[in-house]
From TrEMBL:
Signal sequence range: 1-22
NCBIfam families: ABC_peri_MoxJ_2
Keyword annotations of the record: Signal
Key word Signal present: yes
Listed name of the protein: Amino acid ABC transporter substrate-binding protein
UniProt organism field: Paracoccus contaminans
Superkingdom of the source species: Bacteria
Length: 272
């Protein structure tokens, strides 16, 4: 019954105009940190609590002095609408800066796409998608992601072996599959998002992840990652911004231990 009542309540909030923000703000729980998350998006989030976003959520909950609760839903179409916007939870721990579906906090890390290759292979030293060494190789990339555009522009369209972008991670894991294919020699390299690939490569002595810090032109290959809250919840956003600022060293430590490649705000160099 609660799920059926929420859309009507939100519709009413929209109708009353000036009172809408107060209505939205009332949705936030004051008795728990309620996190919207995908149950099968490792290494980011996982229902067993092993993801690095789970550890970041635990850090925030501890600093707030609140218990941690989750609303689980697969990321993809409808994720924000069915979780955050429905009032079932109050924050998405990892959200790319600039998306209009949520209100972004200040970013708490910046990461980048990169190349996964075998350490003992011919592509181990490649750090640009325009490197001639990539031509004629089997190259994995998730279809529709920014590096696919750069690769096509560099004349690598025939070499690209695409994985699906929107999948239910409970049943499919294209990034992990491509990392495994590089390890096994089925792919020569794969161009993947750092926070997904970095943790998978971190403890694998056969593989390395090389961030793409020298690419030019659009689309950009680095992204600033924020926490996402509902539009209108400005006090909550400011509270999270303060927590991010005061706990940035601990946030960085969690991300580095997970194997997430951290870069400066402009994607030009590794973060010290």
């Amino acid at each position: 019954m609660m799920r059926a009542a929420l859309p009507a309540g939100l519709a009413l909030a929209l109708l009353i105009g000036a009172g809408a923000q107060a209505q939205v703000a009332d949705l936030r729980s004051t008795t728990a940190l309620r996190v919207c998350a995908d149950p099968a998006a490792a290494p980011m989030s996982a229902q067993d609590g092993s993801g690095f976003e789970n550890k970041l959520a635990r850090l925030i909950a501890d600093r707030l002095g609140l218990p941690l609760e989750y609303s689980w839903f697969p990321q993809g179409p409808g994720f924000v609408r069915r979780t955050l916007r429905a009032g079932l939870c109050d924050v998405v721990i990892g959200y790319a800066q600039g998306d209009e579906l949520v209100q972004n906090t200040n970013h708490y890390y910046t990461s980048v796409y990169g190349i996964v290759a075998r350490r003992d292979g011919p592509l181990a030293a490649v750090d640009r998608l325009t490197d001639p060494a990539l031509h004629g190789r089997n190259l994995g990339v998730v279809a529709g992601t920014p590096p696919a555009t750069h690769m096509a522009r560099a004349g690598l369209a025939r070499d690209m072996r695409g994985g699906k972008l929107n999948v239910d991670r409970r049943t499919e894991n294209p990034v992990a599959d491509m990392v495994g294919a590089v390890r096994d020699g089925m792919l020569d390299a794969a161009v993947l998002w750092g926070p997904l690939a970095g943790p998978l490569v971190r403890d694998d002595p056969a593989l390395r992840f090389t961030p793409l810090l020298r690419e030019e032109g659009a689309p950009r290959l680095f992204y600033r990652i924020t926490m996402g809250v509902r539009p209108g919840e400005d006090d909550w956003k400011r509270q999270l911004n303060s927590l991010i600022r005061r706990n940035q060293p601990e946030i960085d430590r969690i991300l580095r231990e997970a194997g997430v490649p951290l870069v400066d705000d402009y994607g030009k160099a590794l973060k010290p």
